[in-house]
Amino acid sequence: MHDKKILLIGLEKVFAGTLTVALRERGAEVDCLGGETIDLPGGAYDVLLIDVVADLALIKRLKSVSPDTWAVIMADTATVPSPADIIRLGGDDYFMKSRDVGYLLLRLGHCLRYLTSRQEMLAQHDQLEKEIAAKNAAKEELRQRLIFYQTLMNAGSSPLYVVDINDFTVKWANRACYFHNDYEGRTCHQLTHGRDTPCNGANDPCTIAEIKKTGKSVVVEHTHIDDRGKETIVEVHSSPIFADDGKLIQVVENCIDITERTQLQSQLRHAQKMESIATMAAGIAHDFNNILTVILGFSDLAHSLLEDDNELKAYLLEVIKAGRRARALIAQILSFSRGKELAKQPVLLNPIVKETVKLLKASLPSTIELRFNIDPECGMVMAEPTQIHQVLMNLCSNAFQAMESEGGTLEINMERLTIDEKGVAAAPSLRPGVYICLRVIDNGPGMDPFTMDRIFEPYFTTKAQGQGGPGSGLGLSVAHGIINAHKGVIMVSSKLGQGSVFSIYLPEIAMEMETDQQVGLPVAGGGDEHIIFVDDEGSIAGLGKKILEKLGYKVTVFTDSIKALAAIKSAPDKFDILVSDLTMPHLTGLGLAREIKQADIKLPVIIISGYSLDRNLADEAAKYGVRAVLKKPFEYEGLAQSIREALTAAA
């Protein structure tokens, strides 16, 4: 009864006092009220002991302020209320009225023990309800947090998924994953690579295996394939997920699409390679022009010295034609190296195809049969002949290499086609109109779909060692670029074991046909003037001397521009015209012209250059009295014509 609070109401005064003393001795706090009282003391009580003779309405009044009070009604046998009455009155128990203090103490002890148990149970119930409420609140907070994180992860545009480290199955995937609603029971390598074995090797290292080794996040590059077969290059950021005991259980992978970035990097590398090639090409072209100058010049000289019925004259004519073709190729290389586009002109493709066939016949082995079929109705196209010749030779060379080991048939066809709306639907790259279609057909081993998809990519090559060394992978990409620049289309069709067909479509133009360029133009008449010829290449200087002397001129040759300038200054009236190379050590051709101009020497100047002069150099050349600029390799006729025109203008 220690620390319990008990209220006695309506008990006989003396007995109430005795009971009060006994209860207080046992540590209880006791208040005692007479039966006639109507005012209750404040505060809560543990037990209310009330005689039935008292105002039983006090029970309800007391319970209204102290609902947990245990109300006990004391009655004699004549006034024992029924359980229903006890409940109706607000009572919890009743005692038989007795003046035996021991009996009452015993009964009150039972009540207090029950009350203590009840209070403990209520306290436990309250605690349990609090714990349940706390758990429910934590569960709701966890649910809301899960919703938040799922919303956050689904808001991302990059695929993100969680993988079990033991069986590689995907446990969760965000909406950015194409397999978002279809991943249950499937592994990451099945979903992202379309295969049944885990990733392995340098090209696609397994992120889970790497994390198992180090326990740290890793970043790798993979090529993922979706359910439609589309390939995407991704940067996989993988991070470990640990259990509470520190054990690795899962890996979360975030896949960032770097396809475009990779392509841009590849394009940058390609641009850097092309820039390096362009720089190298310019140097090679300049030196090669000097070589061609000697070849064409002496060939022209030899050709002019032979009688018309001499068999060698026809041979030299072919050398001159080939040299001119080489000169055009060098011009193309120089244009490429300087980023300039070669001028296009209306041309017939028939002569280009015939010349290509003639060259191929001389080089193809007997195991390869060459056929060609050219429609004479084919009109003209706007094109640069040398570039078209290059494309055709490139396609034929590829076909030859494909059939080199087994032999076969190489066929070149050309026809005039009208493409209507139906044809455009079959080939979306084309527009309705009239085209000249040039086809290169071989019955070699053909190509698989993977090779066909990449055939026009820069640096992609299937040429292996033993075939003249590995290819550069530039041939078909350059051909593709040339045809696109001509507003045409190049397409390929092929199947393994059935050969390949490359088709070039070039728009036909409506123009009058012109005659082909002839070899051996009329030579301008010479004279007895004195020409000073300057070139640091001894062979070119010697060629110039022979050509000009054959024309009747008096010629003085120098291979040193400083010595040439000294000769001119020492005898300014001795020479009638200066012909000088542009690029020379110590003093360039323009520098030589400038010195002559500043010395007020009236001497017309012709510059010979392996390069095309840009606008600044051209303006500078005109300012210093340069009458003409000849491109190397110059020819017999061209040099003679330019000198005659310059001398006539200066007269």
Quote the average pLDDT.
81
- Spans of at least 5 consecutive residues whose pLDDT stays below 50 are 464-473, 512-522
CA-based shape: elongated
Q: What's the number of extended β-strand segments?
A: 22
Count the DSSP helices: 18
Q: How many whole angstroms does the radius of gyration measure?
A: 53 Å
Q: State the separation between the terminal residues, measured CA to CA.
A: 145 Å
Q: What structural class should be given to the helix and strand makeup?
A: alpha/beta
The biggest sheet, with number of strands, parallel, antiparallel or mixed sense and barrel status, is: 7 strands, mixed
Strand content: 15-25%
Helix content: 40-55%
Give a structural overview.
- The chain has 651 residues and is α/β, with parallel strands linked by helices.
- The chain has helices at residues 13-25, 57-65, 83-89, 101-155, 188-193, 207-214, 259-305, 311-337, 349-363, 385-403, 421-426, 449-454, 475-485, 538-550, 561-570, 589-598, 615-623, 636-650, and strands at residues 5-9, 29-33, 47-51, 70-75, 93-96, 160-164, 170-173, 218-225, 231-242, 248-257, 345-348, 368-374, 380-383, 408-419, 433-442, 489-494, 500-509, 530-534, 554-558, 577-581, 605-609, 626-631.
- The model is unreliable at 464-473 and 512-522 (pLDDT under 50).
Short description:
The protein has helices spanning 13-25, 57-65, 83-89, 101-155, 188-193, 207-214, 259-305, 311-337, 349-363, 385-403, 421-426, 449-454, 475-485, 538-550, 561-570, 589-598, 615-623, 636-650; strands spanning 5-9, 29-33, 47-51, 70-75, 93-96, 160-164, 170-173, 218-225, 231-242, 248-257, 345-348, 368-374, 380-383, 408-419, 433-442, 489-494, 500-509, 530-534, 554-558, 577-581, 605-609, 626-631. The chain is α/β, with parallel strands linked by helices and 651 residues long.
